[in-house]
Design a protein that fits this description.
Elements (H helix, E strand, L loop, with lengths): L16 E3 L8 E6 L18 H13 L8 E6 L14 H8 L2 H17 L5 E6 L1 H16 L1 H4 L2 E7 L3 E2 H6 L14 E3 L3 E2 L15 E2 L22 E3 L6 E3 L7 E3 L4 E3 L20 H4 L13 H21 L1
């Protein structure tokens, strides 16, 4: 394993957990890594673990994303140092990657060590993240879990949304498997959501050779899934923790060439990152029709249902064994 950078955050201190239930009462857990949440241009490239904007927006992301699993799992979410979101547009992919392998990796691995030793108590668990949180999740799967097969064996599934799972990554990490159906276990569930107009445009989160699974029909081919398959689409709020129910639900079709989930309904174009006031500047980062902020919310209730399906399949298998 690569050496660590810096001193890890102390995860025995409750203030370093966004969510850490005292009396977990469900049969399975969720370990959640929030997306880029530091929005302070005056902070450094790697923000402090208690940086105020990061903590504030991390709580929002916990409420808008991890809550999809709330009826199914006990939610655990560590605070961890991460790359400042205001710096990302100024950094190359290589610079971002190098920064994430520094203090962010140190903290996430330390949080995992503490979670498995003191909090998990042998329960099966989901790993979930978004964007930068998914990038760290891929590190966890490729390196940490390879070093700790006893923990990896108890993972129901990893939901790594908003960052690319690629063929190259799977070839380099043969112990990691991509989800192929709605109920397979020990797999990575991944997608990036876009509109048709993003075709041909670069995106920080869409890598060459990306692959996705369709969150409505749970297929990996390009069979379209109409909005009728969607149990409920929402729009995240930038400042408030709540999600806003959308009047129409998202459809979903995988673009096999690009490896993304494409939402074609033009009524949802107002949900693209670049359509949000003040965020037009992110077009160069994500493309003109990215639904990066809606990877969870567009398919929120389908994710919830799928988590329940996978948890029940895991528990059924354990009982049979």
């Amino acid at each position: 394993m690569k050496p660590f950078v810096g001193t890890p955050t102390d995860y025995s201190d409750p203030k370093h957990w966004l969510a850490c239930p005292n009396n977990p009462n469900k049969d399975v857990d969720l370990l959640f890594l929030y997306p880029s949440s530091c929005e302070n241009p005056m902070a450094g490239t790697i923000c402090a673990v208690d940086e105020p904007t990061m903590v504030m927006f991390a709580k929002r992301n916990l409420a808008q994303q991890a809550s999809a699993f709330e009826p199914v799992a006990n939610i655990f979410a560590p605070c961890w140092r991460q790359v400042n979101g205001t710096k990302l547009s100024q950094m190359s992919f290589e610079e971002v990657d190098a920064a994430e392998w520094a203090e962010p990796r140190t903290d996430v691995y330390a949080a995992l060590d503490y979670y498995f030793e003191h909090l998990n108590q042998g329960r099966p668990y989901f790993l979930a993240g978004h964007s930068q949180g998914s990038r760290l999740s891929y590190m966890v799967l490729s390196e940490y879990m390879k070093e700790h097969p006893e923990h990896y064996a108890n993972m129901i599934a990893a939901y790594c949304l908003g960052d690319s799972l690629t063929h190259k990554y799977l070839e380099e990490n043969p112990h990691v498997r991509a989800a192929q159906a709605e109920d397979d276990l020990g797999v990575v569930v991944s997608w990036n959501t876009e509109g048709p107009a993003n075709k041909g445009h670069d995106s920080l989160v869409v890598a060459p050779g990306a692959i996705s699974i369709n969150p409505l029909n749970w297929r990996t081919d390009d069979t379209p899934a109409a909005a009728a398959f969607n149990l409920g689409s929402y729009m995240p709020s930038l400042l408030l923790p709540r999600l806003k129910k959308l009047p129409v639900n998202a459809d979903a079709t995988i673009d096999l060439e690009r490896g993304t989930v494409v939402v074609a309904n033009p009524k949802l174009e107002k949900c693209a990152i670049t359509a949000i006031p003040g965020l037009k500047r992110l077009e160069s980062v994500f493309g003109p029709a990215s639904y990066h902020g809606c990877d969870y919310s567009f398919f929120f209730l389908n994710i919830r249902k799928n988590a329940r399906v996978r948890a029940e399949a895991w528990l059924d298998q354990r009982n049979r064994d």
